[in-house]
Amino acid sequence: MDPKLDADLCRRYPKIFAGRYDGNIQETLLPFGLECGDGWYNIIDALCANIQGRINQSRKERARSLRFNRALKRALNGDMGGMLRYYTYDGAVASWADKSIANDIERGTYRGVCEAVPQVVAVQIKEKFGTLRFSISRGDDVTYAYISMAESMSARTCEECGSPGHMRRGGWLRTLCDTHAAEYGYAVNDEDNGEDNGEDNG
């Protein structure tokens, strides 16, 4: 990938690309760079935005629930001040705040505290068998679902320019548009479905 696009992704998602410039190559292959064409930049960008957005949101929700539960615990001991912030809009306490707070206190309605999604760190990003491979050190089921979707999208996106494309067979499996297929010597009218033929180009 073009160094400027590579650097842009690292700047926008520093936590995901934490090992890009100073990672130990025994633990991560990211120091070798993003080993794919510029055409998949938008796919990787959207994938990282979804992953990091979900991580950040899970942490915010966890922190809000913990703060609410602490405020409710204080309210149960007679200190109501901390609860009012959860019923304030545009600087004014809602008219129904007292009743809602009383209900929360009476029921002891603590909020469920979700586990924060672990920070995802990329360990290798490359093209393999004609599609994107986005390998990470850890993640949850939703993270891996995001990655699976991105990798599926790469099979329909020209690796060189980002235009619609499909899998081309030749010396290497590649996903290319007609223009780049012709440029690199692939059959332009090849409508191959891209099923694995055992060739490994990366």
Secondary structure blueprint with pairings:
Elements: H1 3-12, H2 41-76, H3 81-84, E1 88-89, E2 92-93, H4 97-107, E3 122-128, E4 131-136, H5 141-154, E5 166-168, E6 174-176, H6 178-183
Antiparallel strand pairs: 1-2, 3-4, 5-6
Helix pairs in contact: 2-5
Give the biggest sheet: 2 strands, antiparallel
Radius of gyration, in Å, reads 24 Å
Spatial ordering of strands, largest sheet: 1-2
Secondary-structure class? alpha+beta
The mean pLDDT is: 84
Query: How many domains?
Result: 2
Tally of DSSP β-strands = 6
Distance between the termini: 15 Å
How much β-strand is present in the residues?
Answer: 5-15%
- Count of helical stretches: 6
Helix content percent band = 40-55%
Tell me the series of helices and strands, N- to C-terminal.
HHHEEHEEHEEH
How would you describe the shape? elongated
Low-confidence stretches: 192-200
What can you see in these coordinates?
- This protein is α+β, with helices and mostly antiparallel strands and 202 residues long.
- It folds into two domains: 3-55 and 119-183, no CATH class; 56-107, no CATH class.
- It is 40% helix and 11% strand.
- It contains six helices and six strands; from the N terminus they run αααββαββαββα.
- The protein has helices at residues 3-12, 41-76, 81-84, 97-107, 141-154, 178-183; strands spanning 88-89, 92-93, 122-128, 131-136, 166-168, 174-176.
- A two-stranded antiparallel sheet has the order 1-2.
- Helix 2 (41-76) runs antiparallel to helix 5 (141-154).
- It is elongated.
- 26% of the residues are buried.
